[in-house]
Amino acid sequence: MASSKGGGMEKMSVEQLKAIKEQTDLEVNLLQDSLNNIRTATSRLESASTALHDLSLRPQGAKMLVPLTASLYVPGTLDDARKVLVDIGTGYFVEKTMDEGKDYCERKINLLKSNFDQLIEVRLELPNLKHCMSWYIGFKQLRHVVQAISRMERPIKYNYKSNRSKGMFLHPHNYTN
Amino acid sequence: MGSAAALRELQRELETKANDLSKLQKDIGKNHQVRKKYTIQLGENELVLKELGLLNEGANVYKLIGPVLVKQDLAEANANVRKRIEYISAELKRLDATLQDLEEKQNSKKEAIFKVQQRIQSLQAGKAKA
């Protein structure tokens, strides 16, 4: 991928390169957001998993206070902790046994972790690309400056030409005007 | 005198074209947003379908309708989710087509703008010489 892009970069203008750089910046931000989202989702699933584990340890008929609102609790007793309802998304709930519920949490956590690792790999590559892009843009701009100077002060061009007639900074066709 | 009028004409043309371009770019941005939303929904539905597929025949499935959970057949839930995935996929395909169309339009607009700019430049250069 890098080599195929390297050939194309030579021909692109500074504006195009800047557009690409902007796009990469956006991608990096998006990626960071995704990573944060995955992290929060994982921690929520982990807390759900521990809550399930906690619940499974309570005997039937255990006394508890059930929250109706954030500050109002009513007394209740635990009826049956063997079955739980799991929200599987888009408004669907499935009745599962305690073990199945725990298994569900584990599976989801593992899925998120593998996604997370994939994203991390991508993210490690992106800053490299970003760095490369800014360097290249700087290089291009420098080349423009050198060309402008060589046009202003004709004598310089001979110096450059004699020193590095095949240098990549100055091609012969740049002096024709 | 004639060249000045032509220049003004060209600049007006450039302005309208630039406006068109920004409108197109806005549309493209909107398209991206909608597509993002649908992609997320598609992913969620696919996860649900996978989860439903893991259940055994007699499992109890509930659908959240407003604040209440209503019991639903596993087969029915499966069919519902499948239908939704189908719909979202079709919608995504449609969005792809419009996006491609918009991008083509954007590119041709950019080219047109570039040409007008060049003409303006050559006109100005000609005036400077004269």
From TrEMBL, chain A:
**GO CC, alphabetical:** cytoplasm; prefoldin complex
Please give the Gene3D superfamilies that the UniProt record associates with this protein.
1.10.287.370
The record's listing under InterPro entries reads:
PFD_alpha_archaea (IPR011599), Prefoldin (IPR009053), Prefoldin_subunit_alpha (IPR004127)
Please list the GO terms describing molecular function: unfolded protein binding
Give an example GO biological process: RNA polymerase III assembly
Task: Name the coiled-coil region(s).
Answer: none
Q: Which domain of life is it from?
A: Eukaryota
Which family does the entry's similarity section mention? Belongs to the prefoldin subunit alpha family.
NCBIfam families associated with the record: prefoldin subunit alpha
Its protein name is: Prefoldin subunit 5
- Species: Citrus x changshan-huyou
From TrEMBL, chain B:
Q: Which is a GO BP term held by this UniProt record?
A: protein folding
Highest taxon of source: Eukaryota
List the Gene3D superfamilies. Answer: 1.10.287.370
Residue ranges the record marks as coiled coil? 85-119
Chain ranges passing through the membrane: none
Q: Which InterPro entries has this protein been placed in?
A: PFD_beta-like, Prefoldin
State whether keyword Lyase applies.
no
Q: Which GO terms describe its cellular component?
A: cytoplasm; prefoldin complex
| Keywords from the UniProt entry | Chaperone, Coiled coil
User: Recorded GO terms, molecular function?
Assistant: protein-folding chaperone binding; unfolded protein binding
Similarity annotation: Belongs to the prefoldin subunit beta family.
- This chain belongs to which protein, by name? Prefoldin subunit 6
